[in-house]
Specification:
Helices cover about 45% and strands about 20% of the residues. The protein is α+β, with helices and mostly antiparallel strands and about 700 residues long. The strands form 4 sheets. Strands 13, 14, 15, 16, 17, 18, 19, 20 and 21 form a 9-stranded mixed beta sheet that branches. Strands 6-7-8-3-9-10 form a 6-stranded mixed beta sheet. The protein has a 4-stranded antiparallel beta sheet with strand order 2-1-4-5, covered by helices on one side.
Length: about 700
């Protein structure tokens, strides 16, 4: 009866396309059926079509015409996923060349099919140990295939074929690589398997193998020429597979899962460990790029932090600075009407929450570069014994900038001395107090300039204001500290300036800088944002302080340099990504036969992709970790070098940099591994198994 037959083949034809575009027909109208418990030998010369027929029966090749019905399933109508499941659940392969995976232990080779089914670790080991005991290898569990004899390897292959309790065992030349004694031992095992109720089909050209079979099917030139039962075949002691227990397990097959991500990662780790030197060198190459990226990020943020901290040391984030720039023709200034209009416009249009600006919140300032033709400033520093300068053209220093002291300067900003004051004692032999930048040390030699009285000369539109001024302090809070810059109290400057108006016909001093004191940084930021964005004419030509402008310039320059360095690191990472792609691609080529083995035991395309993608992930993770170590060492070296050479190291580490580095490393590795993983998944199982 047909329903007693495990495998039915009807009118099967199989053709191959040759390189010259011709077609070769390997099988011609093959019709045959097999039952459970048979030990069938398919015999024929090389090229007769027996291996092609076995590939079709085993679901390795589905490109045929006709019908192959296994356990009620028409293989020609199954999808790729259904064929994968068929190979995993219904078929077990025993190959002539064993096809064991060399870097896995004997136990792991046998459990591989269970790993693809996501069987639990304890159950997996128990079932594999049982199968290895049945084939007499219970003492060899931890060995690698290279440590076994040919007969032992074939026993492992048989145990692997049986592990998922398949209905059909296909043995392709199972004794072809074995001596006579070992061959008979393997054939005895296969006979016992058949006698236990499995269908065992052996592909062979050996008459001795055929003689122990229950049936011999001869094939020649792709046609079955003879199908003869062996009348002398007697069932002997069956292989103790605990069939009843296995049948219960068989009913659960529909509940089996596929290869899990965790199992794929574990399997990938085994694969990587087998080539640990190659993988470590690849990871180290990527780590250089990752480490460089972290160093560049730290360097870029370090310089920005340095500039910001410098800005913070001489400014107040709650104060808004509005300045009118001096041109070659005039020094623009704010009138009282301008200030009133600015206050009104900010209150009406800046949308300041719960805050109203008043003129009492504004203090005045004056700042100008002295290189404009209409304005210059200088001091004479040729001191006499009393510490007061006597005019000497050779001891006159031109100042490049004049500032009135901003309201946010405090004693903490002074390197030596004190802030300049507008309160001058009546009996003082000077008219004002001034502060100078540290650049002034270059002109005073070894003398401490603090407390000295210098002659201050200011020229404006051809009129000269000359006063004696006391140096009250040295201020080092500006990005201009390397240049000779003068600071003076606005009220004092206004007083000495206006004292000359009647003589020099100068207009009274008007501020060209406004300092708006706000209650919080958020309000200050809101006003700054409004001033930058508005097109109201009253704000035309208004900018922030010179320090702010310079700081922004340096910050932009630093960001540009940092971006350039990161681009260089990105190029290094791109090279690393190409390296990973090449190495992974070569790995696929080297492991083609291993991929064929995985597919023969039911691995889906998705499983193959997952295994190789997991390897890419592990390479990325290892590269990221190595990159962090490399970056740590490099940062220490850079810190020591910069500190010894320039006195400080502009490096700033952010807590999230390691996560960025790990993320970048993993992403580029996984992306680089996509193509090799996809190529591995697309490999033809038949061609893969033929690869030497």
């Amino acid at each position: 009866m047909e329903n007693e037959e495990t495998l039915i083949i009807r009118n099967v034809n199989k053709s191959y396309k040759l390189d010259n575009k011709e077609t070769f027909q390997a099988l011609h109208n093959i019709s045959v059926s097999f039952k459970k418990g048979e030990l069938v030998s398919i015999v024929g010369e090389s090229g007769s079509g027996k291996s092609t027929l076995m590939n079709l029966i085993g679901g390795l090749d589905s490109d045929f015409t006709g019908q192959i019905i296994a356990d009620g399933m028409d293989l020609g109508k199954l999808s790729d996923k259904e064929l994968d499941k068929y190979r995993k659940d219904k078929v077990g392969f025993v190959f002539q060349s064993f096809n064991l995976i060399s870097h896995l232990s004997i136990l792991d080779n046998v459990t591989l099919a269970l790993t693809l089914s996501n069987v639990g670790e304890k159950e997996k080991i128990a079932r594999a140990t049982k199968m290895l005991q049945l084939v007499g290898l219970e003492s060899q569990l931890k060995k690698k295939p290279t440590q076994l004899s040919g007969g032992q390897k074939q026993r492992v292959a048989i145990a692997r074929a049986l592990i998922n309790n398949p209905d059909i065992i296909i043995a392709d030349e199972p004794t072809g690589a074995l001596d006579t004694t070992t061959s008979m031992q393997i054939l005895k095992i296969l006979k016992e398997i058949a006698d236990s109720g499995k269908l065992v089909i052996m592909v062979t050209h050996s008459e001795k193998v055929a003689s122990i079979s229950s049936r011999v099917v001869e094939i020649s030139d792709g046609r079955i020429t003879n199908d003869t039962p062996n009348k002398n075949y007697k069932k002997g002691e069956s292989f103790n597979l605990n069939v009843e227990e296995e049948k219960k397990e068989e009913n659960k097959k529909e509940l089996k899962q596929n290869l899990s991500l965790w199992s794929a990662v574990r399997l990938s780790f085994h694969n990587m460990w087998a080539s640990k030197v190659k993988n470590f060198l690849m990871a180290f190459g990527v780590a250089i790029g990752i480490g460089s990226l972290i160093v560049m990020l730290c360097f870029s943020s370090g310089i920005v932090d340095f500039i910001n901290s410098t800005m913070t040391s001489y400014s107040d984030p709650t104060i808004v600075t509005l300045s009118k720039s001096a041109t070659m023709e005039e020094i623009a200034s704010f009138t009282e009407d301008d200030i009133s209009q600015i206050v009104e416009t900010i209150n009406n249009e800046a949308n300041l929450t719960d805050y109203t600006l008043s003129q009492e919140d504004i203090s005045y300032g004056f700042q100008v570069a002295t290189i404009t033709p209409m304005f210059s400033a200088s001091i004479n520093y040729d001191f006499d014994n009393s510490g007061i300068a006597e005019y000497d053209e050779n001891e006159t220093l031109s100042l490049i900038y004049l500032y009135t002291t901003p309201p946010y300067y405090s004693d903490s900003t002074i390197v030596e001395g004190n802030l300049c004051s507008s309160d001058i004692p009546e009996d003082a032999d000077y008219d004002a107090e001034i502060m100078l930048t540290p650049a002034i040390y270059n002109f005073f030699g070894e003398e401490n300039p603090v407390g000295k009285i210098v002659e201050l000369k200011i020229t404006y539109n051809g009129s000269i204001i000359s006063r004696f001024a006391k140096i009250s302090g040295i201020v080092d809070t500006s990005v201009m500290s390397g240049f000779p810059v003068l600071y003076i109290n606005y009220d004092a400057f206004e007083e000495i300036y206006n004292s000359q108006t009647e003589v020099a016909s100068l207009s009274p001093l008007q501020p060209n800088t406004l300092y708006i004191q706000t209650p919080s940084k958020e309000i200050a930021d809101a006003i700054n944002a409004f001033v930058r964005a508005t097109d109201d004419p009253i704000f035309e030509g208004i900018s922030g302080s010179i320090e702010e402008s310079l700081a922004n310039m340096f910050t932009n320059l630093t960001n540009t340099i940092g971006s350039a360095l990161i681009v260089i690191s990105a190029i290094s990472l791109l090279v690393s990504a190409i390296m990973i792609l090449v190495v992974m691609y070569m790995s696929v080529t080297e492991r083609t036969k291993e991929i064929g083995v995985l597919k023969s035991i039911g691995a889906r395309k998705k499983d193959i992709r997952r295994i190789f993608s997991s390897e890419s992930f592990l390479v990325g993770l290892l590269s990221g970790i190595c990159g962090l170590v490399f970056a740590g060492i490099l940062l220490i070296v850079v810190y020591i070098l910069l500190t010894s050479l320039v006195g400080f190291a502009p490096l700033s580490f952010r807590w999230y940099y390691p996560f960025i580095a790990l993320g970048v490393s993993i992403v580029i590795s996984v992306l680089s591994g996509l193509y090799p993983a996809s190529k591995a998944a697309r490999l033809d199982p038949v061609e893969s198994l033929r690869r030497e």
